[in-house]
Amino acid sequence: MKKFKDFSCNFLFKISDQPVLLRDLLEANALFNDGMLVDPSKLNFNFKILNSYI
Q1: This protein's superkingdom (predicted)?
Q2: Long-range contacts of 10-18 (CB under 8 A, 24+ apart)
Q3: DSSP state letter for 50
Q4: What is the value of pTM for the model shown?
Q5: What's the rounded Cα separation, in Å, for the pair 18 and 27?
Q6: N or C: which end of the chain has fewer CB within 10 A?
């Protein structure tokens, strides 16, 4: 099951090598706690939309 989770996360998400700024992390945490959507570009990851349809 762990191998499947690792594969699916790597297949659907592109994670940046750059670190996340503390200010952006705190803002994303506040948005998440309020039940709002978090902007993925602030947390340095992208969703591979084409791979989600395959």
Answers
A1: Bacteria
A2: 11/48, 11/51, 12/47, 12/48, 12/51, 12/52, 13/45, 13/46, 13/47, 13/48, 14/45, 14/46, 14/47, 14/48, 15/44, 15/45, 16/44, 16/45, 16/46, 18/44
A3: H
A4: 0.53
A5: 18
A6: N
Single-letter code of the amino acid located at 53: Y
Is-contact 6 42, C-beta < 8 A?
no
The two structure tokens encoding residue 29:
């945490």
